[in-house]
Amino acid sequence: MNIIIYGAGAVGLGLGSFLLPSKQSLTIIARKNTTAALQKNGLKRTGIFGGFTAKPKDFRCFSKLADVPPQIFDFILVTVKSFDSRTAAQDIASHASLWDANTKIILIQNGWGNAEQFTEHFPVEQVFSARIITGFTRPKPNEVHITVHADAMHIGSLFDQDLKSIETLALAIGQGGFPCIPFNEIAKDLWAKMLYNCALNPLGAILNVSYGQLAANEDTRTTMDAIIEEIYAVMDKCGYATHWESPEDYKRVFYEKLVPATAEHKSSTLQSLKSGKKTEIEALTGMIITLAGQHNVDVPTNRSVYDKIKFLE
């Protein structure tokens, strides 16, 4: 398969490190400093999935799509931050020499609302979404370190499309060592990820602590409980659903399974703030506040942590 990874942050490099062992033709689009590091030193992975190193000759890397020789790619994996979704969609759409009607675009991003920005430019048949609950960090521009892992990667369609066309991609990622499956209820997955991220990311960033530390303290558990309950109220008004019918059902899984599996991880929001970068708070808690406003739902706890993150930004 011919694959582009559009965005070589920690997640993009991590997925690249699992696609290369299954001998896929891989092109990476990255910022200039990352491109230079990858072209010089190759791609390196460390962490709980074991070590992996790819030489510069094993893949191609460019700092912009305009530099990629004209060819049709089977898959474009979008791993940029959610605040870059609109720009990414416009950029990919403007380079029609790299895709056709059979090319599938896989959005591997946090938050809610990314797919709609791509369907402004592409038919719904081409746009798929993925959920990852794995901790990726990037200690160097060409290196990724995997810290925690809670579940297999899921790929599916928010628009009820058949998933046969993405089976080969899921198989290739799985063969490279990272569990990945097509999944028919990806919307429920994304809302489960919203619950997980909104409960942990902002609060962990504000307090500069790990997920496990948040769950171990009664006061922060009270805050996270309120965040979860408010999000369920928003989902109910909007007609969305996840895998657990009630906040109580979700909280049991959250505290007993999800947080323990990722207890040592610190949030990507915290990592962004420490690096002086923009966070994804708008696509996470910001989206909850937006939807709540549209449906007259009161979300004071989500609003409180959102305001504090905006101050820190």
Structural commentary:
There is one protein chain. This protein has 313 residues and is of the alpha/beta class. It folds into 2 domains: 2-184, NAD(P)-binding Rossmann-like Domain (Rossmann fold, 3-Layer(aba) Sandwich); 188-312, N-(1-d-carboxylethyl)-l-norvaline Dehydrogenase, domain 2 (Orthogonal Bundle), CATH 1.10.1040.10. It has 12 helices and 12 strands. Strand 9 and strand 10 form a beta hairpin. Helix 6 crosses helix 10 (268-274), helix 6 packs across helix 12 and helix 8 (218-238) packs across helix 9. The model has no long low-confidence stretch (mean pLDDT 96).
Defining key terms:
single chain, 313 residues, alpha/beta, Rossmann fold, N-(1-d-carboxylethyl)-l-norvaline Dehydrogenase, domain 2, 8-stranded mixed beta sheet, 4-stranded mixed beta sheet, 12 helices, 18% strand
Describe, in short, the structure shown:
The protein has twelve helices and twelve strands.
What is the CATH superfamily classification of the largest domain? NAD(P)-binding Rossmann-like Domain
Give the DSSP E fraction (strand runs of 2 or more residues): 15-25%
Average the pLDDT over all residues and give the rounded result. 96
Q: State the helical fraction.
A: 40-55%
Principal-axis shape equals globular
Terminal residue distance: 40 Å
Radius of gyration, whole Å: 19 Å
Low-confidence stretches: none
Note the total helix count: 12
Structure classification? alpha/beta
CATH architecture identity of the largest domain: 3-Layer(aba) Sandwich
Query: How many strand segments?
Result: 12
